[in-house]
Amino acid sequence: MFEDLPTVPTSQELLDKAFRRAAKAGLTPGKDEIVILTAGNILSDNLSNLVRSFPSLENLPPFYREIADIAVNIDDMRISLSRLSWASKQVRRITREYKGNLKRGGETSINKKAAFGRMSSVLRSIDKDLVFLGEARNKLRRIPFVDPELPTILIAGYPNVGKSSFIALITGARPEIASYPFTTKGVIVGHFLRGYQKYQVVDTPGLLDRPLSERNEIERQSIAALSHLQGVVLFIVDPAEHCGYPLESQMRLADDLKNQIALPMLVVANKSDLKELEGVPQMSTLSGEGVNAVLEMLVSMLEIKKSA
Ligand SMILES: Nc1nc2c(ncn2[C@@H]2O[C@H](COP(=O)(O)OP(=O)(O)OP(=O)(O)O)[C@@H](O)[C@H]2O)c(=O)[nH]1
Ligand SMILES: [Mg+2]
Hints:
Blueprint: H1 11-24, H2 32-53, H3 62-72, H4 74-103, H5 112-125, H6 127-141, E1 152-157, H7 163-170, E2 188-194, E3 197-203, H8 217-228, E4 232-237, H9 247-260, E5 265-269, H10 291-307
Parallel strand pairs: 1-3, 1-4, 4-5
Antiparallel strand pairs: 2-3
The structure holds guanosine-5'-triphosphate (GTP) and magnesium ion.
């Protein structure tokens, strides 16, 4: 989705690049005036291209918009981008002013040194914005692509119950798996094949049973996935409470989600090697027991959903 975002240079890199290119542009040595004009044009073009290379966040599908907002704060990003546009215009203005001055044959109001100095200080004033956008770009690029056309299984549940263990077992995804909560900090996507049909599995960070206003940024990504993506939900509970949370709270979260989201949901007990739970399908992503049966159920739920 955000794969094509280019790297964001620092202001010094922008300046160096523009002046190096201008000097190289086959110009007669000593013609510093033309170097300044060319460098000015390159700088203002580079800045406006940079602004254009960021996606227009208003037009993103709701899932990406929300995930991007959690990751980088869209308002801050908009402010930094508009400061880059401002800088591009400023550099263009300085270049024009300098050109006008040259035509009049004068080293009067704005000479070479002054033109260079003013361009540099415009660039320096957007230093922080460039750094911020560079970091934003790195975060945005980590957001995986979720294909809206593919039948999708969304994995949800309390932290540490074995959600990532499940996606690792049935897809090629290799998320981090660890014995502490909130190991998964963002949405992860994996795929598996059934004959010719490709299925998509979305692993989400753990969720606690609490109001949205109290949820952390990691949990809010799960809520974004569950509220904006289509598919069936595999809600994993850990009746052994090996995860560190009471089963009662886990079940309450399952009920809350059932009421909040309009997707079919299958509640499954994991870690059956440690403790069994009556009344729901069981599996152990450790021993592999019951995993295929759970997958069968999810696939048939997706088929029913498709034909409905
Ligand atoms: N005994 C047992 N342990 C399991 C099983 N499945 C997962 N675990 C362990 O439970 C811990 C958590 O597993 P993860 O797959 O990281 O759990 P998660 O739900 O993705 O956790 P978060 O990303 O933090 O929400 C790890 O130590 C796993 O090895 C199981 O079936 N049996
Ligand atoms: Mg996980």
